Amino acid sequence: MSRLSRTTLVATAVAASLLATLAPTATATAARTGGDPGADGIPDLTDSRGRVLTLRGWNVEDKANRGDAALSAVTEKHFRDMRAKGYNFARLLVFWDDLEPRPGHYSQTYLRKIERILDWAEKHDVKVLLDAHQDVFGPAFGHRGIPAWATRTDGLPFTPHPDDWFSEYFEPAVQRAFTHLYEDEDLRRAQARMWRVLADRFDDHPAVLGYDPLNEPMGELREGEDLPTAARRIEREQLTPMYNRIADSIREADRDAWIFVEPTPIVGEGVPTGLGRIDDPKVVYAPHFYNTGMEAGADYDPAAGWIESYEQAVTLYPKEYKVPVVVGEWGPLNNSLPNMNRFYREAMASLGRYTSGWAGYVWCYGGGYCAVDGTGAFRTNKELTAEPYPEAVAGRVRSAAYEPGTGVYRLEYEAAGRRGSRVTELALPSGDWKVAARGALVLRDRDRGRVRVLAAPGARVTVTVTRTGPAAR
Is residue 296 a contact partner of residue 7, using CB atoms and an 8 Å limit? Predict the structure, then answer.
C-alpha cells in the first residue's frame, strides 16, 4: 500500500490505548515450530503433502496502466529476479475495475494477462496470491479497485487530498461507498461473481496459492465513534460476512486454494481486530505491517515498542481461530535512515516468530518503496530480507533460527512418518553457502538456489547453512 502519509490515522488512532510491550526482540530470526498449533497457538501454512510452508516474497503490481495496457509493467524479469535472490512468493495486485469494466462483462484480455503472469511465476517456481486491490475504493475517486459502476455515494462530498491521499478514505463519499459495497445485495452478488470468475479461471493453475478478497478494507465511521471502535465494528459486522460470502463463491470453483482475509489497516497501530470466524477450512489471516510515523517519513524508534505491541495485538486473532498468518505488505518508504538497519533486523525476527511468511512492498526497479534499484541490486537495508529459510518442511520443526551477524542458519526437525513426504526444501539467497545435514541426505540445486533434504521416516534432522561468501546484493 504505497502512500505519502497517514496523518489522519495518526490523529485518530494514536490516541487509542496501545497494548503492553512484550519482552525485547531477539537479534536472530527464529522460525515458528510445529504443523498443528504449537506453543504460540498459531498453526502453520501447509501444502497438499502436509509439509510446513514458509513464504517469503514481494508484492508485484502495475497501478499505472489500465485497460488495454493493464499489467504491462509486470514482466517475467520480476519473477526470475525474485527467485534468484531466494524468494518464493508474490502477491499479485489485480483490479476489479479492469476485470469487469461493465456490469457482467468480464475482460478476457485481462484474464489472459493474469494467466501469462502466472505462467511466468510457475516457470520460476514462485507461488502467487491473487489480491483484489483497492486504493481509496476505486476510479470514482481517482484511484484503482472497485469499478465506478459499483460506487454509490448518495451524493455525499469528496475532496481530493493529493498530498495525503490516505486521508481520502475519511471523505464522506468514500466511506458511504464502502457501506453500500458491504450492504447492498446486488453489489454483494457482483463482488462474489467476480471472485467466482477468477477462481473458475485459475483454480487449476499450479502457481496459484490463494486469493485475497479485498486489500486493506475500510468503512464508514458512525457519529461518536473513534477509529479503533469503528474498525472493530466494521470488521465484525461487515467484513466477516463479506469474507464468508466470497469464500462460498470461491469454493464453488476452487476447493484447494487458501483464502487470505485482511483486517482494516488500523491493526498497524497495535489495535486487535474485530474479525469473527470465517467458516472455511483454509483461511489465512493476512494483516499488513506498517507504522504511521515511519510512513510519514520518520526514522524507526526502537524505544517506542511498536513492533512488540503490533505483534501482541496481531496474534490474538490467529490464536483464537487457529489460522495461519501471512503478512501481506510491509516495509517503510525511507530505508536509509539511521535506525532502519535495526528496524529490518527486528522486524524479520518478529515476523519469524508468528507468521508463515510475508510479502514486502514492493518488487520494482527504482526508488521509493522498490526493493531493488535499476540495476537489480538491493536498495539500502532491503538485503536484510534475504536469508536462508525452509520453503517446505516434511515433518515437525523443532527449532529454526538465522543469525545475520554470523551468517549461520540452523534447522532442526523431526521427519514425517512413513506416510508423509520425504523431501524438505530450503531456499538460499544469492551468494555462497555451505550446507551440511546430520541425519539426512543433502541435494543441491544450484540453478535455483535451493537445497533438498531427504530423511528417513521419523529421523531427527539438523541442517546447518553457513554463508561462505559475500551477503546478497
Answer: yes
User: Which residues have C-beta within 8 Å of that of residue 189, sequence separation ≥ 6?
Assistant: none
Which ranges of 256-371 would DSSP assign to H, the alpha helix? 292-295, 306-314, 316-321, 340-354
The single-letter code of the amino acid at 43 is: P
DSSP 67: G
pTM of the model: 0.94
449: CB partners within 8 A, 6+ apart:
83, 84, 86, 427, 428, 429, 430
Cα–Cα dist 301/224, whole Å: 32
Separation between Cα atoms, residue 326 and residue 356, nearest integer Å: 5
Taking Cα atoms as reference points, which of 191, 121, 165, 148 lies closest to residue 359?
A: 121
Dig out the grid coordinates for 420 from the structure.
508423509
Pair 326, 284: CB distance under 8 Å: yes
Q: Which single residue is written with the C-alpha cell 519482552? A: 23
Tallying the residues shown for the chain, one arrives at: 473
Residue matched to cell numbers 474498525:
231
Number of H helices and E strands in the chain, helices first, is 12, 19
d(CA 333, CA 2): 8
Report yes or no: 421 and 393 within 8 Å, Cβ to Cβ: no
Burial class (CB in 10 A: 0-12, 13-18, 19+), 162: exposed
User: pLDDT per position in the chain (473 positions), as tens?
Assistant: 544 445 444 444 433 333 333 333 334 667 665 545 655 899 999 999 999 999 999 999 999 999 999 999 999 999 999 999 999 999 999 999 999 999 999 999 999 999 999 999 999 999 999 999 999 999 999 999 999 999 999 999 999 999 999 999 999 999 999 999 999 999 999 999 999 999 999 999 999 999 999 999 999 999 999 999 999 999 999 999 999 999 999 999 999 999 999 999 999 889 999 999 999 999 999 999 999 999 989 999 999 999 999 999 999 999 999 999 999 999 999 999 999 999 999 999 999 999 999 999 999 999 999 999 999 999 999 999 999 999 999 999 999 999 999 999 999 999 999 999 999 999 999 999 999 999 999 998 766 688 999 999 999 999 999 999 887 67
For residue 365, count other CB atoms closer than 10 A to its CB: 16
Q: Give me 190's grid cell.
A: 457482483
Rounded to whole angstroms, the maximal C-alpha distance in the chain is 68
